[in-house]
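Table S2 (continued). Query chain:
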Amino acid sequence: MTTPQSPLFPHHLEAQSAHLPAHLPFARYAHVSDLQHKFWQASRAEIEPFARDFGALFEFWGTPDYIWPPYPLYAWSRIWEYPFVHRIIAGIPKKSTILDIGSATTFLPFYLANQYSSTVAGIDPDPYHLHHFTACAHEVQKRLAVKHLPLPVQTRGDALPYPDAFFDIAYSVSVIEHIPDPLPTMREMVRVLKPGGTLILTLDVNYPFGTQAGGLSQSALQALLQTLSKELGIEIPLPEAPLADDVLLLHNSPMRNFSIPKIPASYYLRQPKAAQNLVLSKLRKIVGNAPRSESAENLAVVAIVVQKP
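Corresponding output:
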């Protein structure tokens, strides 16, 4: 296997983008300090207005059966992941066809389709996917004056209904770790990617490795990277462990520094599980020694960006 040095950004930007992959392949932990970098801040500023407007539409399509935060951009890890994925996609010259694995009904595929006039396929196996995605698309088009909409496709990631070399970009945001066996999905994402196309992944990993958390173990992450390396014919090593005080975790995430739009009571009336989580969260703040969820506390984020030869 070889390790090609494929430039992702123009040379005049490389010196300014130390926190972004100037060359591929790229595998790296999310750092707290990244969020102070001007590229992260600029990327968040670009997508934030649409994300907030999109979230304000949730009461038109939310139901008790569909649990999803209306403003996912402000989740502890997503404030890093969404700007990262957007910045990478924005820097790719050709993006006429984009694949989102595990999209659910979130703002990003809608933003990308409209911003770049791209054909964006949102893949999700959830039985409510088509209903909620389509209902939301109607409201987004009507209320946000969106001209280009993504396409909802309800299917499994390990059996994509697309021919070989179909997409310019394939990405997934914090989904891979929730798939019982993610390797077939990885192979499918590589299969449908065009030569020269870009694969972008963000995923939760157990931190430190050895803890019982809700992310990938070290062996699972290694197996995923080995599968990608084999499918692409390049070598993708395990990311280096960051300094402990800089790795992005739930307890040090700056998500509380952001002004999150107030969620009306109607949202919690429609989504009782979300109401339950809110009550537990407030109790945790009141009772400081309440036991915390290890699956949430011991998670870190790894980002992977590779280019198909």
